[in-house]
Specification:
The complex is a heterodimer. Chain A is α/β, with parallel strands linked by helices. In chain A, 31% of the residues lie in helices and 26% in strands. In chain A, the strands form two sheets. In chain A, strands 1, 4, 7, 8, 9, 10 and 11 form a seven-stranded mixed sheet that branches. A four-stranded antiparallel sheet of chain A has the order 3-2-5-6, with helices on one face. In chain A, helix 6 links the parallel strand 8 and strand 9. In chain A, helix 4 packs across helix 5. Chain B folds into two domains: 174 residues, no CATH class; 175 residues, no CATH class. Chain B is 57% helix and 17% strand. Classes of the chains: A alpha/beta, B alpha+beta. Chains A and B meet through helix 2 of A and helix 1, helix 11 and helix 14 of B.
Chain lengths: 240, 385
């Protein structure tokens, strides 16, 4: 497997030798009647702590499926996915949910904020699964919203925010539990170029300044250029 | 606080849909309560009976009478402590539409035997000393605006002629279950008048009311009374007062069954409507449920959100429906006049309404909650696109 480095981002993150994510012989296929449709075929690759990886490929190449498998929201047909030493493919649904809550921050293309909750409450949502007290939750949410520059919009509902602002709230939500890994599925797919640049700049900062490991799916080369590495998928196979 | 907050906010996302659903539940729960109250009213006569009272009637039919001389013989049956009697009068007050039950009673013994009819001592005395006096229930007096001293003419149907009575007393029921729509007057007055006009119809009794010492001996005493008059010209059929009243209810049982069936059909219909609402609601939110599951919330939590919202809406509608039942029951009772002598929303009915609301909420949410909990995260996330 060949991983290509992007020259746009300086390498300032401290790394360890053991991969944070280790994928071995990963296969995913769907069955429709008697027809078997392969989506991912014999995928092997590592993600080191502090990496910022862009998964690229044409539509139907399996990049979102690979991201879903790494994030533990889908299960492989065979193979192994180890994240921080845990084989998540072997976890039960309940354990996997708890693992996601503790280790994964999600950023979606369409933000996926709860429309009935304010920006503050949306960011606070993952903390409802922790044992943190109200005061500590409030402090963390305020810090996360300040980090994404939305401290003055915390009482706004999603429909009162622009697309870029909503995505920044989603980024704050992804950060709030200090996860091991942040996965972003086309985070700029629904944004105009200027706003997309702002969001990508924010992700770069998270990686460069906070050392967050980010795996981002995108079909946009400009967005991918913000990542440290680019992984290419084609018809379910890693091609570069 | 997070779950109640989410449930409350979700419930009012589609204000019109939620409002219409709540209105539907209000109508259903109110209709259910009113229909149950009608059923209760039908049984009220039986419910208000005393287990220490028996009723003896002619074994052939209630239409046939029994001789006055039976009173003495019934009194001698072991276990009997008192005997009174009454005749159905069946008079018409102004028009046939003004129906209310009228009985010629052996006043002193009858009133002693029915402590649930509460009379002021001076009014009771005034009634007892006036042969043409009458005593009526409060509800009946209020309905026709009768006051003490009023002359009340009744046109006899069984006993021809116009019979005019002077209202001497108005009784109140000891509780809400007591029938306050009855009209009583002296059997002696009826008997003397009838004897004068139709000598062969004198000294005849419609029903004997028998007070017994030990209610557990009711069956044995009933048998003893009936055995006393075996092979006579007027054999008796004695039963508890409750069984006697239920005999009347049984005559209209088909109507009662229909009313009860309709009351449950109403609930089933609103259950289907509510289930449809919750199914739409859950379907619209699959991507949100998927997002929550992706963030680490479990299937149980997602199911809880759906159940809590459904139960919340159902209970809100149910509570308003229960509150509305009371004034509507009063209006209904007023419109029905004396057709339902006892008509009030019982505690059991309110509990049934509450239970029905809960069942509506739970049943309506069952399938949507199951589907929402089981939605695959990747499918749910795709739904938003």
């Amino acid at each position: 497997m060949q991983i290509e480095s992007s020259e746009a981002v300086p390498d300032v993150v401290t790394r360890t030798d053991a991969p944070l994510v280790a994928i071995r012989s990963l296969t995913k296929y769907y069955t429709r009647g008697e027809q078997v449709i392969p989506v991912l075929v014999d995928i092997n690759f590592d993600v080191m702590a502090g990496d910022y990886i862009a998964l690229m490929g044409p539509s139907g190449s399996g990049k979102s499926t690979l991201l879903n498998l790494i994030a533990g929201i889908d299960k492989p047909s065979s193979g192994e996915i180890r994240v921080a030493g845990v084989d998540i493919a072997g976890l039960s649904d309940g354990d996997l949910a708890a693992w996601r809550a503790a280790h994964v921050g999600f950023i979606f293309q369409f933000y996926n904020l709860m429309p009935v909750l304010t920006a503050f409450q949306n960011v606070e949502l993952p903390l409802q699964l922790t044992s943190l007290g109200r005061a500590e939750r409030r402090e963390r949410v305020a810090t996360a919203l300040a980090l994404v520059g939305l401290e003055d919009r915390m009482d706004h509902y999603p429909n009162e925010l622009s697309g870029g602002q909503q995505q920044r709230v989603a980024i704050a939500r992804a950060l709030i539990t200090d996860p091991t890994l942040i996965v972003a599925d086309e985070p700029t797919g629904d944004l105009d170029r200027t706003t997309a640049e702002e969001v990508l700049g924010l992700l770069e900062r998270l990686n460069a300044e906070l050392g967050k490991t980010i795996i981002m799916v995108t079909h946009d080369p400009k967005a991918a250029s913000h990542a440290r590495k680019i992984v290419q998928l084609e018809k379910g196979v890693l091609v570069g | 606080m997070f779950v109640p907050l989410m449930v409350l906010k979700n419930a009012f996302r589609h204000k019109l849909r939620t409002s219409l659903t709540v209105v539907g539940i209000i109508v259903a729960i109110t209709a259910f309560g009113l229909l149950r109250t009608i059923v209760d009213a039908w049984y009220a006569g039986a419910e208000a009976t005393s287990s220490a009272r028996l009723v003896s009637r002619n074994a052939i039919s209630l239409v046939f009478s029994m001789p006055l001389t039976y009173a003495q013989k019934i009194r001698q049956v072991p276990g009997v402590t008192a005997v009174s009697w009454a005749n159905w009068f069946g008079g018409v007050y102004i028009t046939e539409r003004n129906f209310f039950p009228q009985f010629a009673i052996d006043a002193a013994t009858y009133l002693d035997m029915y402590p649930e009819f509460v009379l002021k001592p001076e009014e009771r005395k005034a009634f007892l000393v006036d042969r043409r006096g009458a005593v009526v229930g409060r509800k009946l007096a209020d309905q026709y605006g009768w006051k003490l001293g009023d002359q009340i003419p009744l046109r006899g149907t069984i006993f021809p002629g116009t019979w005019t009575f002077t209202l001497r007393a108005i009784y109140d029921g000891v509780d809400a279950k007591t029938d306050e729509t009855q009209f009583f007057f002296h059997w002696q007055f009826l008997n003397e008048t009838v004897k004068a006009r139709f000598p062969r119809r004198g000294d005849q009794i419609g029903v004997y009311v028998v007070e017994i010492r030990d209610p557990t001996q009711a069956a044995a005493i009933s048998q003893d009374i009936d055995a006393t008059f075996k092979n006579s010209l007027a054999e008796t059929l004695t039963e508890t007062e409750k069984a006697f009243q239920l005999g009347f209810v049984a005559m209209t049982e088909a109507i009662l069954v229909a009313v009860q069936a309709v009351s449950f059909v109403v609930i089933v219909i609103i259950m289907a409507v509510m289930a449809n609402t919750m199914a739409m609601t859950a379907r619209e939110r699959y991507s949100e449920y998927a997002t929550m599951k992706a963030l680490g919330f479990g299937q149980g939590f997602v199911a809880l959100l759906v159940f809590a919202e459904s139960i919340g809406i159902a209970l809100a509608g149910g509570a308003l429906g229960i509150l509305l039942t009371f004034p509507l029951a009063n209006i209904f009772a007023g419109a029905m006049g004396t057709l339902f002598p006892v008509f009030f929303v019982s505690r059991e009915t309110v509990l049934m309404q509450l239970g029905a609301s809960l069942v509506i909420g739970v049943v309506a949410a069952a399938v949507p909650a199951w589907r929402a909990a089981r939605v695959r995260i990747v499918d749910g996330l795709r739904a938003i696109a």
